[in-house]
Amino acid sequence: MKARIxxxxxMADIVRDGYIIxxxxxxxxxxxxxxxxxxxxxxxxxxxxxxxxxxSSKKVGGIVAKNFKKLMNSNPRTRSIIxxxxxxxxxxxxxxx
Length: 97
Prior knowledge:
By secondary structure, the protein is α+β, with helices and mostly antiparallel strands. The protein contains 4 helices and 5 strands. The two termini are about 15 Å apart.
């Protein structure tokens, strides 16, 4: 799937943070007008418990799993995350930019 330019820029933002970020970082607005940003293609929002089960069942591995452990050590209260479920396709789209 070809992503639009603004979607590729959103992908680049998450990739810079290690292919995984807390969903609380992916918001816009201020005060009582805070909303969630659109999740780019090849990314998915899941809870921490779902991510742990994906890692234990070997459906997610590599750099995403490694950075998930680092993220949970630095932010143990995180409830949900946005992660890259297809690193190869994401890198291919980023090369197009």
